[in-house]
Design goal:
Length: 79
């Protein structure tokens, strides 16, 4: 009979706990950043843009308005 690991239940992290863990992960190798919980938002939006993902879909996924996504996240030249 095949044994499996017990099922783990997902735990909801508080914002402060998430921020603290990301801060520790960044400070360990000496990375300093004002952004902790949103550090990957810009790069993920740019990566999606680089593979020609639809800008409206990227905007909806990140729940950004047009000004925010164009000014902060999709900073490369128009396609």
């Amino acid at each position: 009979m095949l044994q499996t690991e017990p099922t783990r239940q997902a735990q909801k992290w508080s914002y402060s706990f998430h921020r603290e863990l990301i801060g520790k992960a960044l400070s360990s190798p000496g990375i300093r950043s004002n952004k902790k919980t949103h550090i990957n938002c810009g790069s993920s939006a740019r990566m999606a843009g680089n593979v020609c993902a639809n800008v409206d879909r990227i905007r909806r996924q990140g729940r950004w308005n047009n000004t925010t996504i164009n000014g902060a996240y999709l900073t490369n030249l128009p396609r």
